[in-house]
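Hi F.,

I've been meaning to write this up properly since the lab meeting, where we talked about keeping a consistent format for the predictions we share between groups. The idea is simple: the sequence comes first, exactly as it goes in, then the structure tokens exactly as they come out, then a line or two of notes. No screenshots and no reformatting. I'm using this chain as the first example so we have something concrete to point to.
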Amino acid sequence: MSYFVHPSSYVDEGCHIGDGTSIWHFCHLLGGTRIGEGCTIGQNCMIGPDVVIGHHVKIQNNVSVYAGVTLEDYVFCGPSVVFTNVINPRSHIVRKHEFKNTLIRHGATLGANATVVCGHTVGRFAFVGAGAVVTADVADYALATGVPARRRGWMCECGTTLAHGPALPVHATCAACGQDYAAADGVLLRR
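Output, unedited:
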């Protein structure tokens, strides 16, 4: 076995776990779940069924990743991040045929206790602040905070704020790593 699963955790048949991944205490991976290489799954997480998690993803404690959620490579989920997969749940009505997909793109960060309402995409290297509630798509490199989450600025791939305010910067250079960014066709791009 080239990955680690704590003895208190359960991995159902039909799961694939990549090399170097660690799954800590009291987790449950449901059938059909695919977890990439080098991931860390903190304690008390439930993942699946049929969830796809990329490589080098970090999921902190107390996160449930439900069917319909995809986490691309290098995503970070802080403690107690919440995902949903049904818009209008009722305990007495089965709506599994109405699941809405949620996509968290490469390198995105979801802060502690952030909630992502299903059916939305969080863009590449976007940063959703702690406690934010995502009710719409979040652009690549955007910093989104609040309830509901609104764009408050722009982030570098290294996690440093590039610019404050919702307006797309024409040009920005990261003060920490020196990476340059520029606006093109309404999106922020690394130069």
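Notes:
The mean pLDDT is 97.
The domain at 4-190 is CATH 2.160.10.10 (UDP N-Acetylglucosamine Acyltransferase; domain 1).

If this format works for you, I'll send the rest the same way.

G.
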